[in-house]
């Protein structure tokens, strides 16, 4: 049997390889790292996480991304299995020890006899064979040029930003305290998964002034793109209004200052554990394009971080993705070259879990093709089906932008009322329908 070739061993490519091998089809997984790196990646490991260490909400009843977690677990996905094995306390979210996670994914893929990992950069798109392109938002220049040559159009682009990471022992815990928002979580560790730094009104105003005045990274001449609203740099949010951050990542709701319970903070900066040892914390929602010197000055204005030491400062990078509604069919194949499937963030999904989920689907579809079968996508009533439906035709091509999974992508429930008050009943109905339909899709294979 001819193998399926996958370009890129990120979350999507790793999941695709695992799913294909589980069907008995051989896989060749091509990865250019570490011989050719990117500015964002630090290792040559598979499924390296370069931004947040969070897979977001793990609530599979009231949250669409939690439902996506459920579907990936039901499909016995590698990414969710290793995330569960290396999870960290994070309230109601699923956060992982990023280094242990990617090392475990790499080890599992290397141990699978049907998967061959081949180092080296792929610079051209093959004319034949069964291929999956899962190169992510940091696709190499040579391969990006090859994609443009085949599609006849430029890939769209936006800028994504990386949040800074702080050494835990440099946080002043006489000022900060441990608490998840609304004490969410079943264990004490989950209920204290975040470190919170409070700000008064005057401290917040001074912080905003410094943030707006700080020296920023400039784009190269002629380089333009829009930001993805789910991952805006904090200074861009501040430019949209002085109160924007206080109603976003710095909102004080659901938190009580353990050092001064009677005084409500005007704003709160949260830090989330980044490794199992608890020695590193990332500043939640603090993606930034400030220059490094400005970052240390501005972030040390945060109460509790006056003497903070940074394991990594924030950064910004250009992400590329296809105009998938015009280029891909519902089997995730390139219309002009159906021997090529695309998966992951390059298809226009946003987020670790969404990227891995598209790898899972592309892998199963490619394996079915190798076995002489055709596998349709899951119903659009499922989280995976809603995503693939959005990127392959449900979205408006002229305004297509990266999208996280959300209930707005699900077909409506006619009998359920809309509005905020209807969510308590509507969301569980969405997720139960999704579970039933996804289970049926799995059973039919």
From TrEMBL:
SUPFAM superfamilies: FAD/NAD(P)-binding domain (SSF51905)
Keyword Aminoacyl-tRNA synthetase recorded: no
Record localization: Cytoplasm
Cofactor(s) named in the record: FAD
Enzyme Commission number: 2.1.1.74
Superkingdom assignment: Bacteria
Main localization (coarse): cytoplasm
Sorted UniProt keywords: Cytoplasm, FAD, Flavoprotein, Methyltransferase, NAD, NADP, Transferase, tRNA processing
Function (record text): NAD-binding protein involved in the addition of a carboxymethylaminomethyl (cmnm) group at the wobble position (U34) of certain tRNAs, forming tRNA-cmnm(5)s(2)U34. Catalyzes the folate-dependent formation of 5-methyl-uridine at position 54 (M-5-U54) in all tRNAs.
Protein family per UniProt: Belongs to the MnmG family. TrmFO subfamily.
NCBIfam families: gid_trmFO, PRK05335.1
HAMAP family, alphabetized: TrmFO (MF_01037)
Name of the protein: Methylenetetrahydrofolate--tRNA-(uracil-5-)-methyltransferase TrmFO
The organism of origin for this protein: Paracoccus acridae
Gene behind this protein: trmFO
């Amino acid at each position: 049997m001819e193998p399926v070739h996958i370009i890129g061993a990120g979350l999507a490519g790793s999941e695709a390889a695992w799913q294909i091998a589980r069907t008995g089809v051989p896989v060749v997984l091509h990865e250019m790292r570490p011989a050719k790196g990117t500015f964002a990646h630090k290792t040559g490991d598979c499924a390296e996480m370069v931004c947040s260490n969070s897979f977001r909400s793990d609530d599979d009843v009231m949250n669409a991304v939690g439902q996506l977690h459920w579907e990936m677990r039901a499909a016995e996905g590698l990414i969710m299995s290793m995330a569960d094995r290396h999870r960290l306390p994070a309230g109601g979210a699923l956060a992982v020890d990023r280094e242990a996670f990617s090392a475990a994914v790499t080890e599992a893929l290397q141990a699978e006899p049907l998967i061959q990992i081949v180092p080296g950069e792929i610079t051209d798109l093959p004319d034949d064979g069964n291929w999956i392109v899962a190169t992510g938002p940091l696709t190499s220049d040579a391969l990006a040029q090859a994609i443009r040559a085949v599609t006849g159009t430029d890939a769209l682009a936006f800028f994504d930003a990386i949040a800074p990471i702080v050494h835990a022992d440099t946080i002043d815990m006489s000022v900060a305290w441990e608490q998840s928002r609304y004490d969410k979580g079943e264990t004490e560790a989950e209920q204290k998964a975040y470190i919170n730094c409070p700000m008064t009104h005057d401290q917040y105003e001074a912080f905003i002034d410094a943030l707006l005045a700080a020296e920023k990274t400039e784009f190269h001449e002629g380089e333009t793109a829009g930001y993805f609203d789910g991952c805006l740099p904090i200074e861009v949010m501040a430019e949209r209004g002085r109160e924007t951050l206080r109603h976003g990542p710095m909102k004080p709701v659901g938190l009580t200052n353990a050092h001064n319970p009677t005084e409500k903070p005007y704003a709160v900066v949260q830090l989330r554990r980044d490794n199992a040892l608890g020695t590193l914390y990332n500043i939640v929602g603090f993606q930034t394009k400030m220059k490094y010197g400005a970052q240390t000055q501005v972030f040390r204005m945060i109460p509790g971080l006056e003497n903070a030491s940074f394991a990594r400062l924030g950064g910004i990078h250009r992400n590329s993705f296809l105009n998938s509604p015009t280029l891909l069919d519902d089997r995730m194949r390139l219309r002009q070259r159906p021997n090529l499937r695309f998966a992951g963030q390059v298809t226009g999904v946003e987020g670790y879990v969404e990227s891995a989920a598209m790898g899972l689907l592309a892998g199963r579809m490619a394996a079915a093709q190798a076995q002489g079968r055709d596998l349709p996508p899951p119903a659009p009533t499922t989280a995976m089906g809603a995503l693939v439906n959005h990127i392959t035709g449900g979205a408006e091509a002229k305004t297509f932008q990266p999208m996280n999974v959300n209930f707005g992508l699900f077909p409506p429930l006619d009998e359920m009322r809309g509005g905020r008050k209807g969510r308590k009943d509507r969301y569980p109905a969405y997720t139960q329908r999704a579970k039933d339909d996804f289970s049926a899709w799995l059973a039919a294979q």
